[in-house]
Specification:
Elements lengths: L6 E2 L2 E2 L17 E8 L6 H5 L1 H10 L9 E8 L10 E2 L1 H9 L10 H11 L12 E7 L6 H13 L2 E8 L6 H6 L6 E4 L9 H12 L5 E8 L6 H15 L9 E8 L15 H10 L9 H11 L11 E8 L6 H13 L2 E8 L5 H5 L8 E4 L9 H15 L1
Parallel strand pairs: 3-4, 3-6, 6-7, 7-8, 9-10, 9-11, 11-12, 12-13
Antiparallel strand pairs: 1-2, 4-5
Helix pairs in contact: 4-5, 8-9, 10-11
Organism: Elysia crispata (lettuce slug)
Keywords: Signal
Protein name: VWFA domain-containing protein
Amino acid sequence: MILCLTLALHGLLAGSCAAGETCKSDDVTADIFFLVDVSFYFRKSDLKTHVPNFVKSFMGSFIFSLEKVRVGFYSYSSSSIDDLHRFLDRQDLVEKIDSLPYIGGDPTLHKGLQIADASFKYLWGGREDAPNFLILISGGRSSHPRKTQEMLARLSKKRVTIYAIGVGASAHTKELKTIASSPSHKFYVEKAKDLSSIKSKLLMHMYETYNASVQSDVFFLLDASYMVSRFDFIEIKNFAKSFVDSFIYTPYNLRGGVFAYSERTHTVVNLKHYGYHLDLNFIFKTFRYIGGLPTLHTGLDVAKWTFSRQEGDRKTAANFVIIISSGNFANLRRSKKNLGDLSKKAVRTYFIAVGPDVIMYRVRLIRFYLRRIFHVQKAQALSSIKDELVRNICADIKRAS
């Protein structure tokens, strides 16, 4: 069954959403079960704050109902009591998570997996026609590896997709790799407070998994002219990098490229050579501040060339250009023409203006689609628009698919 999970940082996409609004989709049908390690591998403070906040934030992306999304929850250790292994409504889930105990004891993961296995059965509210997800938050180890592997094999036969999230310096284990359904289903954070940093990627991975036919190409244009300070250019690169980290990049589904523009230009990183986000992250680090005039029209020339067949453009992919700019243009007429040419190719362009002196009227003269224009007063505030930007792009991907 195809699960239509059109996901963004703060939730599921259902067309346009106001800034800060959580978007949910009526198309989603799934049974999701959380397993949380409450053994001695976790600190009490983490189980009272960071872990509950992550689970509640993640589940805030879904519409709870018997027909749509059902959620189960269980905390495991050698001291756990089997008090909950059924699917819950939202209020039950919140109350259970808020009362998450610190129990200590050994990490009896096999016991938690047995509870999850039972929960996916019809008797406990599971559905045969709904995709099953198990999300594990773990210290990376189990007290009985053999029993754990036996339970994992049983869940695999039932086509339960398992995401394993390791928390803590000791969680980077070989065992954690064997728990996840595949290497790409494994996540790791050094501290529990960093769980929020993987939320978007976890959601997007579900989207990629069940919409494997969806393809998109994203090309960044970064203003490296004298209109942007050296410090702000670093902030712009960091924002672009964080945006890349919000998606699962592969050469087949989602690919990316980047170009820093000014009258003194960088080498183009085009789409057909850089599909993986690790490659793109390396490129962002190597790009340096240039100075010179803000030649956006040159950057758009490069984007047009990038979205050509010989440079790897795909007819089946939704195409995007994301411009992060000072809002100044050395040649407004040519910039406007190039944007028109990209629009004829069905390339969607997002424009992010950075700085207190941006003349938004001049930006709108280029005729960007209004929903795709963003403005921040300073580069450090770019992170404040990332959620809405990702949400809008995912909505565009859905409409194009």
